[in-house]
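Section: Multi-chain targets

For targets with more than one molecule, the full set of components is provided together so that the structure can be written out for the assembly as a whole rather than chain by chain. Components appear in the order listed by the source. The example entry contains two components.
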Amino acid sequence: MTAQPGTAVWFAQHETRLVWRDWISMMTAGRRERLRRVTIAIVLFVAFMHVVADWSVGPYADAVPDRQTLIAITASILLSWLLMVSQAMESITRAFYSRSDLDLILASPVTADRVFAVRVATIAAAMAMMALPLAGPFIDILVLRGGWRWLGAYGVILAMGATATALAVGLTVALFRLIGAERTRLVAQVVAAAIGAAFVIGLQLAAILSYGTLSRAALLQSDVVLTHAPELGSLFWWPARASFGDGEALAGVLAVSFLLLAAAIVLVAPRFGEYAVAAAGVSHARTAQGRRLTAFKKASPQSALRRKEWLLLRRDPWLVSQTLMQMLYLIPPAVLLSRSFENGDGAYRLLVPVLVMAAGQLAGGLAWLAISGEDAPDLVASAPVPKNFIMKAKIEAVIAVIAVVFAPLVVALAFASPWHAVVTAAGIIVAATAATSIQFWFRTQAKRSLFRRRQVSSRVATFAEAFSSIGWAATAAVAAASLPLAIAPGLMAFAVVAGAWFMAPRAPDA
Amino acid sequence: MKPVAPIDQFALELRGLVKCFDRPAVDGLDLNVRAGEFYALLGPNGAGKTTTLRMIAGLLRPDAGTIRVAGIDALADPAAAKQIMAWISDEPMIYDKLTPLEFLEFVAGLWGVEPALAQARARDLLAWLDLMPHADERCEGFSKGMRQKVALAGALVHDPRVIILDEPLTGLDAGSARQVKSVLRERVDAGGTIVMTTHILEVAERMADRIGVIAHGKLIAEGTLEELRLAAGQGSGAGGATLEDTFLALVAEQAQAA
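Its structure, encoded as tokens over all components, is:
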């Protein structure tokens, strides 16, 4: 049944249809014939997650809400919620800045507040839906083993989505008012990245400073936290209690969450059109932003390509924030490294896999940008430069960035332990090369602005890149302790890369 | 109409060019364009115009046939052919985060142009195209017309002998279109060769020395406007049919024959 055009329900139907088709397109990479395979893969994934959940949380299904359990659950909720806030902020920013159909809607005689109300509600629902595939199996197992009371956890997820979206709306609008439409786009993206990483990094830093390890659990289970945690009757524990099926806590959490979301919508929706128009003016009002070029530099085609890649990377706020997100995770190991110098202990061995993993991930993202994310592919292809030269220059641009980021850390590590530095350097080179190679084999032609959805183009490449980085990180970790033992994980990581090469499309060259 | 170079000085020679996707897009195309000539390639949607130009520019590899650019075998030595060619599509190929000058510096680097020469040319081109006030602004806020002019400057900064243009005037306002046409005319007057597709028949009628009509991947007619009118049986002289009438008659005739 179709609602009256122009009403909120009608917009909701329209948005739902778009979101659904977008999701299907994302999951099937635009090929409807893959739908059955994707469905089977999802079913298998969910089944696998239930097995994992049974193994990991099954034994705790009869847990009682004592202080230690409440701390662990609250920390998990807070961690997931911060990630939701981060994601919601990005979605809200896109709701303001993405033009797509906004110009059409704003130009119509329909009031913009209905559009915004529906879009915010859709984002809140999407945040909750995103958490379900990961959290759902754990809740299901707890329900199966511990009883219906655990169903309250689903309510907590809905509440988390609502509050995360409400806070994201509040933060984004506050930024709009404080620093204006032009700066909000960049700052909101950086804030979103920082929020997503803040909790994990904060806990790791606290753990390092207190206990000299990267373990988050060490801090959460410490006497300090137990001593300073609020009383069991405190409202602070309501979300965790709601997960345990405490009816009063669940009702309270849901009521507060949806009130916050409704308040955000009611307060901001009437001004949505105004904000969207201000955001639209950003790109058109832009004036002199580039550096003043005084003289052309002499450059071979390769160096021109390298310079272009670095310049584009540096100037794209969104890419910088995404890269920053990955870089933020290097702060805890860097702190751990500095403390290792002070204490002279062997904690730096923990750094080896962290750095190798980070290098693989960063190289994968940068390689996609350089190799696939070319905004002027025809221009580059029509240049009198052999294809392999072009590709070589782009790969060199990626490797140079990796070197600049990781070399200082490896050099610092070398002062503490030359052996660990050698293993780390080797691991970084191999992981970065593997990730870059995978992106090269699975290269496509796309706009750089599609970076966020780069995983959509090839699931094989996405998983291969992730497992390759994990594999090389594990290999480096084992090698740091015993070189011969590293052969086994090394072979497995190599098999992942070889498998990716084998499965890569062999496109005929133009 | 300006005098064109002798027939043996071909800037572009296509022989038996074939490219198939799901169906043949270009089907045994033969085409000659003389040096210093402005050649317009017309045809209905899906006729194979863009595919042909992309093969010439080295962006697509033909399934069969040969392409010679100023005597260079473009399939055997693509780098040498590309060195003297430029390609412009209807969608301007520029980088949003670069300024026009930075973009031109990048293009000059790709084509290996001496920095001092490239810089002088870049400034001349930007001034010519009224882009100098925006030379240090990033392209992200530019209008379609400004972006197309930046792309055109990029195509000219390495002083190509053959310029391949695919619908370069699409979406341009009258002022920008006139500037682009003026730049192209000047290049031809200076001895350059231009091969251009367009749906704006008035542009082809007024600017082209010769016009080729392509349908179903084949050249169905070719010549000056007068020659095309005669081929289409549309009469000649000042009161003769327009290019639009002639083009539609030729395409209809070909469709009937098919």
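The CA atoms of residues 126 and 132 of chain B lie 5 Å apart.
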